[in-house]
Amino acid sequence: MALLAELKQGLQKKDLWSEHAPSQDDLNSEQPFCVDTLRFEQWLQFVMIVRFENMVALNTPLPARCDIAPMAQEAFKQRSLNLVIEKIIEIDALLNQK
């Protein structure tokens, strides 16, 4: 999915891409978006993008609904991350039109 690659690039350009993965305990959070253990950009990189890329690689259906944009807007409201938010809005729109 080209939008995932564009989202990755946006995160990298804004220095929000991490070279080190969080611990497995942090990734296993039961809270939405792992809000208790990860920053939102970490959740995007290590949870959402990884899951979506795996689904595409395995040719399994992507989620029928996706509503990540409101969380992105809230998480990034104090930063100039319009490109990242726009890509997330596009991903939501693409998945929600199925």
Outline the fold blueprint.
Layout lengths: L1 H12 L10 H4 L12 H18 L11 H7 L6 H15 L2
Helix pairs in contact: 1-5
Question: How far apart are the first and last residues' alpha carbons, in Å?
Answer: 15 Å
Assembly context of the chains: single chain
Report Rg. 13 Å
Strand residue percentage = under 5%
Low-pLDDT regions: none
Structural class: mainly alpha
Percent helix: 55-70%
**Averaged pLDDT, please?**
94
How many DSSP-defined strands? 0
Secondary structure tally, helices: 5
What descriptive keywords fit this protein?
57% helix; 5 helices; globular; mainly alpha; 98 residues
What does it look like?
By secondary structure, the chain is an all-alpha fold. Helices cover 57% and strands 0% of the residues. The protein is built from 5 helices and no strands. The protein has helices at 2-13, 24-27, 40-57, 69-75, 82-96. α1 (2-13) runs antiparallel to α5 (82-96). The protein is globular and about 30 Å long. The two termini are 15 Å apart. The model has no long low-confidence stretch (mean pLDDT 94).
Concise synopsis of the structure shown:
The chain is mainly α. It has helices at 2-13, 24-27, 40-57, 69-75, 82-96.
